[in-house]
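Q: Could you write out the predicted structure for this multi-component system? I'm mainly interested in how the pieces pack against one another.
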Amino acid sequence: MANKSILVVGGGMSGLTAAVEAAETGYEVYLVEKKPYLGGRVAQLHKYFPKLCPPNCGLEINFRRIKTNPNIRIFTSAEVEAVSGQKGDYDVTVKLHPRFVTEDCTACGKCVEACPAERPNDFNFGLDKTKAIYLPHEFAFPMKYVIDPEACSGSSCGKCLEACEYKAIDLNAQAKSMNLKVDSIVWATGWEPYDASKISYYNFEANENVITNVMMERLAAKNGPTQGKIVRPSDGKPVTNVAFVQCAGSRDENHQPYCSQVCCLATLKQATYIREQYPDAKITIFYIDIRAMGKYEDFYTKVQEDENVVFIKGKVGEITENPDTKNLVLEVEDQIKGEVLHHEADLVVLATGMVPSTLANPIPVDGTTDDDGFVIAEPKETGICGAGCARKPMDVAASVRDATAAALKAIQGSVRGGNGNG
Amino acid sequence: MAKKIGVYVCTGCGIGDALDIDKVTKVAEKEYKCPVVRTHAHLCGKEGVELIKKDLEGEEGVNAVIVAGCSGRVNTDVFNFGPSVMVERVNLREHVVWCHPANDEDTDMIAEDNMRMGIVKVQKSELPEPYIEEGIVKTILVVGGGLVGLTAALEAAAAGYKVVLIEKEASLGGWVAKQYKQVALRPPYDELRENDIQDIIKQVEDNPNITVYTSAKSEGISGGPGIFEVTINQNGNTVKEKVGAIVLATGAKPYDATKLAHLGFGRFQDVVTKDQFEEMASSGKITRPSDGKEVQSVTFIQCAGSRDPEHLPYCSAECCVGSLRQALYVKEQNPDATAVIIYKDLRAAGQYEFLYKKAQSEGVVFIKGEVVGVNEAGGQVSVEAEDVVRGETVQVDSDLVVLATGMVPTTAFGEEELTVEVKEGEEAEAAAAAADTIIRSDILNLQYRQGPELPSLKYGFPDSHFICFPYESRRTGIYPAGTVRAPMDVRAAIDDAAGAALKAIQCVELTAKGAAVHPRALDFSFPEFNLSRCTQCKRCTEECPFGAINEDEKTYPLPHPTRCRRCGTCMGACPERIISFKNYSVGMIGSMLKNIEVPEEFEEKPRILVFACENDAIPALDIAGINRLEYNPWIRIIPVRCLGSLNLIWIADAMSNGFDGVMLLGCKHGDDYQCHFVKGSELAEIRLSKISETLDRLRLESERVQMRQVSIMDYDQIPKILDEFAEKLEELGPNPMKDF
């Protein structure tokens, strides 16, 4: 067991892919995910570009691959605390946060009916609430409930304990530590949306009808806070005139110097969400360059054919709110017309970029990330390999390819003598 | 070994409260005489699992387990008792008590029927035995010796695999070998690095696990994963190699610049392509072809023939970065020289942004606009462009103009043909749906009934169109990588090579075990053909989406099990029903539906049979249950591997057994198909259109059999679809064949 095993850190699309691809090749894999469910960012997306197909479809099959493969062991609500050793011989300390709900949970849902406490729903970026005991979402894997200790008042309440017929709740559960010995490590902790409140001139926090692109995914999603209806957060009204602000915090020395690669396509895709729901809605996309690489150009061409979608080359300077209507005014120079516009919209979507999660939570091994936080470890030397958006900004299909490549590097790190030149 | 079925009914999660459990257990005990039938209030708990284990290990000697409770999507590991114990999950929770009223006779009847189907399914199934070919080899064949092929070879070798690499040119290195400098693979990203392709070539040549054939091509590939036999023609000599899987890395060719006369190519000597420019830079001096003078000014025209419906509609993903690189060559040669890039959108995505910034800081001039004319003026080339930012036409005169031409995959060159001959008549539609486009690019020369190359999807790229599974081509064990698969930049191509190498390695490992590859990885079942009853109709060989079945000279099918993805499309296509899996067959599903109790007409309890794709429709029905969405209680659901495995006899059986209607729930098809087996749902729909005519002839309204394309997210729509179908059937009245 200690031989030829691989640790995959992060259970989003990249981590899942690295884990199942390595496991299906015949290697032992431990998959460690911080959240209480697998699927990561992808689980929060409404559709993928350019096919406009549902991400849960691909997640479902990956979950099935995990469920039916004895080579993979998953640990959710778990984080890597320490890594020591070297390629071919790593000791990893994993902290297992308490779920407060045990393996005996059948996901019957009786606890939720009993629970009196609520919490902001992080899965929906706080746009709605769940009970303190909750199922992260209906496609969640593992299909087990979890308690948010910050919202739960503990054994002084205990209503869920009474409701649970399976004695599957342990309000006194404690964090535990676990040690793993592995040959190689795939770091696939993905990305966080760039904090839009840092772009002060967009007044993201004060302007209710300024949202980010990741929030738009939840607004459009059927299992989101509005059951898929795209409405203004301030008053729940339908939208008629939506503005997308590209490179919000990206390609900008004061924020993120790099381009996040996906935001152009994400915006084109979100334009189709709106147009599908509102046949008369007008959409304006303010951009620097539309980076629809490769065959994605076809999707760009398709969206351009919609005459209700207007593209204006220009970087949005400031967003102010009309206090009466809660509409927004965007100050922007239309570079092509050479004039300053004061464009009014009833909903503004900031196309914020990706921050690698390794910026705030670095790999506990020196020299593995660059200044922006992206993983640059050389797998051939270190046995540690970045995968997906932990390595560089990329879309889902690219993440899958990258993670498949990472699975190979991990396998190389665990090939032992006598088997070729590995 | 005789099957001894243990039936375990879970009464937890409200099942026991909502159902008359006695009725359910009676089905197992009385109707099917199952030797062991037990109930438990928490079957997935320790005690429940122990209960089952005791029967498996103890004197009861149970060797097949039916767990009636929650969906098979959950607790999969809990109810796994090893490969020798068959486990069937009868869904009483998500598909019964969570979506139908409690303590209701009709709800009980669904549970009873689900139990009947589960038992019959186990009775009619055998544990699959792996199909293991003799003489499996794990060597990886890499076709193409450019950067991607070389990288794939090295990566596979580093994992301990032998590699055979064939390259049609006399030397290795491909397109990259002609480049002067390379983009950075790690920070700092704003610096170019020396081209290290010669080191990579040397590593390949020195690697004892890699056999290289240059000036070589594949003349023929027969067999399948694990047992491919490649005939390599090297300078006229023929060599045969056995390989297990293939990475296709033949790259792309530059778009034909002779078609770009409007941009000056062919008209002026000092208009060159980016590749000609690169060779110049590599040779040491960037000069004007017309007079050999060192250039003082260079203009780069982006999207030369790309993003242009007249030429290549797509973006080639590399050219913007390529021109940034080349503009920096100009600055390197002479910091005072001018470099101008005329572009539509500057696509320096991701960390290439740093290189863009570098070019800006080095004084490279960027003009967003469209080129409207290229002429000669005063010994220079004059480019006229609409500068959209300045809102005027500008004229840029320079010593040299470089056209950033795009890439065309090597698989796009050759005559097009369809994998299935489409003739006029009744079968035309089915044939058209089954047909893939093959471009005879003379690269692989597969000896497959369905054509010599990988099917081409769009613009000649043989990619998968799966976002989640980008390496899956339609020919098992052949994985395209790099620019032959999609336009991409050098960094992406290097990663792509490693990813495809992993898939190839995985394929040989799974094949050696006798297991399927994606999407049914580790499935040990495979289709068996009872050829004595075959009528040589060719439907299986034509409809297999993966080209797994060849034909012999008498047009009998010659299945190649290692090429098979186990979708069952052949089984669905076969009118003689001679194709079956050990654990999935026409007879098994037929028995399941025949064991559903269909009440007589006077009872006014119609029955509707639903065949639902287990990949998306079944999970969607589970989610409907989780959301407690109610739907019509006349529905009975049979999961299928893929709707492509739907055999029309099931519909005939359903109608003659008194079902009032049949609904098929399958995945989306068309350009943006979601079917995991590419064509299954589309083929089912076409088969269905044929049965409509038969139904009409039998005076059965064709509306009684319908199909809907659904996705996993249609969990809220499916109950409505089913209810509306039930209403429609009520309008039509009972199936007139009910009482026969």
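A: Regarding packing and overall arrangement: The longest strand of chain B covers residues 365-377.
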